[in-house]
Amino acid sequence: MFTRRTLLGAAAALSLMAHGALAQDKLYVPLISKGFQHQFWQAVKAGADKAAGELGVEVTFEGPDNESQVDKQIDMLAAALAKKPAAIGFAALDSQAAIPLLTQAKEAGIPVIAFDSGVDSDIPLATAATDNVAAAALAADKMAELIGGSGKVAVVAHDQTSRTGVDRRDGFVNEMKSKHPEVEIVAIEYGGGDHLKSTEITKAILTANPDIKGIFGTNEGSAIGVVNGVRESGAKVVVVGYDSGKAQTDAIREGLMAGAITQNPVGIGYETVKAAVAAAKGEKVEPKIDTGFFWYDKTNIDSPEIAAVLYE
Question: In what residue span(s) does the Periplasmic binding protein domain sit (predicted)?
Answer without folding.
Answer: 31-284
